Amino acid sequence: TQEILLQPRAETFRRSGHTKPNPWAVMMALARRGLCGLGQTLVRAVLLRARTQATLTRRFQLQPQPSATPSHMIPCTSPSRQPLGAALLSTTAATHSTCMSDSVERVCYVTDVEGNFNYFRNVLQLNKAAEHVRLSDDGSRLDLVGDKTGFVFGGDLFDKGPGDMHLANLLVDFKQRYPDRVHLLIGNRDVNKLKLAAELHESDLSLGSDDLTPPFWLPEETRVSLKAFLNGQPNNQVNRLRFLLQTQMGCAETFEFRRKELQAVRGEEVTDEQVCQTFVDGIHGPDGFYRAYLRHAQLALVWNDTLFVHGGCPHQAAGFVPAMDNTHDPAPVRGWYVPPEQGVAAWVDALNKFKAEAFAEFEDQPLWNSSRTHRGGAALLSYAHRLSVEGRTVMVQDWLVDKKIAPIDKRVEDYFAKSGIVRAVSGHKPVGDSPVVVSTENLEVIMMDTSFSDIQSKDNRGVACSVLCLERDPAGGSSASITGLLKDCDYIDTQLPTRAPYVPVREPIVVGQPVPGTSDEWVKGQLAGLEPPTFVTVSLDGFKVNYGLWQP
Fold this sequence. Notes:
Blueprint: H1 2-16, E1 18-19, H2 23-32, H3 38-47, E2 52-53, E3 106-110, H4 117-125, H5 127-130, E4 133-135, E5 142-144, E6 149-153, H6 164-177, E7 182-184, H7 188-191, H8 194-199, H9 202-205, H10 226-230, H11 237-247, H12 254-266, H13 272-284, H14 289-296, E8 300-303, E9 306-309, E10 320-322, E11 335-337, H15 343-364, H16 378-382, H17 410-417, E12 423-426, E13 436-439, E14 444-447, E15 465-472, E16 478-485, E17 491-495, E18 522-526, E19 535-541, E20 544-550
Parallel strand pairs: 3-6, 6-7, 9-12, 12-14
Antiparallel strand pairs: 1-2, 3-15, 4-5, 8-9, 10-11, 13-14, 15-16, 16-17, 18-19, 19-20
Helix pairs in contact: 1-4, 2-3, 6-14, 12-13, 13-14
C-alpha cells in the first residue's frame, strides 16, 4: 500500500523536475506543522499559484586543490597504546577500488536501506536520484547516468525487510561493473554477519547452552542466555539463528523477512531449515551474498572534499586505525594514529587496508580456534562496538551529543579543515523523516538515516525517503542538495551552500543552524515550492522527534 501511494507522486516529481504547489495542500502542510494561524496560512496558500522549479542541474569540472597540511595529532589516552607503527600504510590494497575515480563530478548517496527494497526503489525514483542512477524496470540492474557520475551506499544494507539477498546481489553487481565509481560502505548491520560463520557451525552447536558467554555490549539487565531463550527447545541451527537475530543483532523479524523473500523467489512454501540455510550460505559460501558485499565494501571514502563514513567521527576516532590483534570483547584497545601531516586521505586509506586485512583473515579462518578464543575477522567485528575500541570507531559512533543535535566538536572541525575536508556524510543514527544537517563556516555534517521516519507505519518508514546529491563547483569545492518526501507527503528540496577547502563558506548558512532564539531546535531543510521560503525544524531526544516550521 505504501508503495502504491508513493510511486505516482515520486514519478510525477521525477519526470517534471518541478513541484506544482496545490493551495489547499500548502495550507494543510503549514497548518499541520503549526507555523501560523489558519487565516494567514490560507492567504499565503491562495497567493501561491505559479509552478516552482525544484531543482537545477549543473555541470561541474575538476579544479586543482592545495595540499593538506594538518599540524596536530589526537593522542592515545594511554601510553601503553601508542601507535604501533605505519605498517598498515604499506599493506596490500584490496583487489577492488576503494578510491573514487578522478573523473567523477557528481555523486549520489543513499544509506541505511536495511533490507527494504521498496524503499530503495522509491528513493531512486526521486528526480535528483534519477539524474544520477537508473534502476531497471524489473529492479534487477543499476546503472550510472553519464560517465562523470558516482554512487555511494552508506552501509546497513540488511535486516529490516524482505530484500536482503536481492539488494546485496544488486549492489555487488553494480560495484563490479563500475569499480571506481560505485562505493559501498560497511555498517554494523553488515559486519555483524561475520558472527554467523562460526556461531552457526556444527562445532559451536555442539557446545552446551551454558558454555556460551553472554554478549558484553548489552546491558546486564537485558542480556538473555541461550538456555533461557531455548526454554527447552532443541539447540539446533534454526533456534541458534533465531537466538542471535533476536538477542544480539536487534532484528527478530529478519528470519520471517527472509522466508518471505525466499518464497517469492521459489514460488513455493519454504521450511525453517531452508530459510536458515540462506544465512549459512550467505556468509560461508565463497560467493555468498553477505560475504560478497563485505568483500567489496569499505570503511570510509574521501571524494573531492567530502568524507563518507557509516556512523560519526568523534575526536577520539579521527585518525585512529585499530590493530589486527584487537578482540571482539572489552579488552584494552590497540591501534595507532596516522601521522597528522599525512592528512585524512591517508587515514581513510589505512582504515580500508585494515578492513581488507581483517576480512582476508576471516576468509582464511571463519571458525573459532580450538580454545574458542579467536576467529578470523575479530578485529573487524570489534570495530563495530564502542566498548571494544573505546569509542574510536566511525562505524557506530554518531554526531549527536547526549542523543540530541549539537554543534560540531571544534577539535574534529579543525582536524578535517587542515586536510581540506569541508563535509562529512553519514547514516547509522535515525534522525526523523528527513536528513539532519549541522553546519559551521568550515564544516558541514549531513546525517542521512531516515529509517524511523514514521513509526506508525508497518516498516517504520511510511512514504518518507530522501537522497543526497553532491556536485563539484567549477570554481573549486562542491555543493550538496537534499531532495525527498516527508512522512506527510510534503516535498523537501534543500540546496546547501557551496563550500571549498581552506575557505570559510561565503553564502548565508540557514539549514544546519539552531532556530534563532532556541538552542535545541534546528533548521532541518527547506520545503519545496513555497514563498516565502519555509523551513522544516526539528528537535531530537533519542528516538523522540519534534517537528515544526520556520520562516526567516
